[in-house]
Specification:
By secondary structure, this protein is of the alpha+beta class. It is 37% helix and 22% strand. The protein is built from five helices and six strands; from the N terminus they run βαββααβααββ. Strands 1-2-6-4 form a four-stranded mixed β-sheet. It has a two-stranded antiparallel ribbon with strand order 3-5. Helix 4 runs antiparallel to helix 5. It is elongated.
């Protein structure tokens, strides 16, 4: 297996990466796609594939995040507040409708057999996925929000701590589906 690092949005990609891969898999680019347009990246990924090669792109479906509880009658004010905070921040980055349009975008770049599938997180992984999400939010608070000097990092960490405690007190968690888009390069 070969792992390469390069700017996926560059006008040109290294020539040694062109037409050499049977499969190109990318995941979780939702926060780095510029101007709500992954076109340049799709073009580069397409160029990396051998004829007949496949692209597989996974994204978390943040637009349809939900709270799951063992007892639906129990309130989850802290988890709800955390998700509202993150939704406001995510919305400030612009629309994410391009994710569900990936098959159409692939087709515009000449790919075939484009399709999209929504994969629901298995219940057995719900707690793990929730802990991972809460840890990611906390990391985000330090790496991004603390640099903005608006107190948002400390606020997010407080929301994460309260939500984490609430999740274990009343047996609840967040769930986010995975969107998987695939397409084949002709040939």
């Amino acid at each position: 297996m070969l792992v390469e690092k390069f700017d996926a949005f560059a006008d040109e990609i290294p020539s040694e990466l062109i037409g050499v891969y049977d499969v190109v898999h990318v995941a979780i680019f939702v926060l780095v796609v510029r101007n709500n347009d992954p076109g340049k990246m799709v073009r580069n990924l397409f160029r990396m594939l051998k004829p007949g090669g496949w692209i597989m792109w996974n994204e978390l479906d943040f637009l349809h995040r939900r709270i799951v509880k063992s007892d639906p009658s129990l309130p989850t004010p802290h988890l709800f507040a955390l998700l509202q905070f993150m939704k406001i921040w995510e919305d400030s980055l612009g629309p994410k409708g391009w994710i569900e349009s990936l098959p159409d975008i692939f087709s515009r770049y000449g790919m075939e057999e484009s399709r999209l599938e929504r994969v629901r997180m298995p219940e057995a992984y719900a707690k793990y996925d929730n802990d991972k999400s809460l840890s990611t939010f906390e990391d985000f608070s330090h790496a991004v929000l603390d640099t903005r000097e608006k107190g948002e990092g400390a606020l997010l960490r407080e929301l994460v701590d309260r939500a984490h405690e609430e999740c274990y007190q009343i047996d609840c968690c967040t769930q986010v589906d995975m969107i998987v888009a695939t397409a084949k390069k002709p040939g």
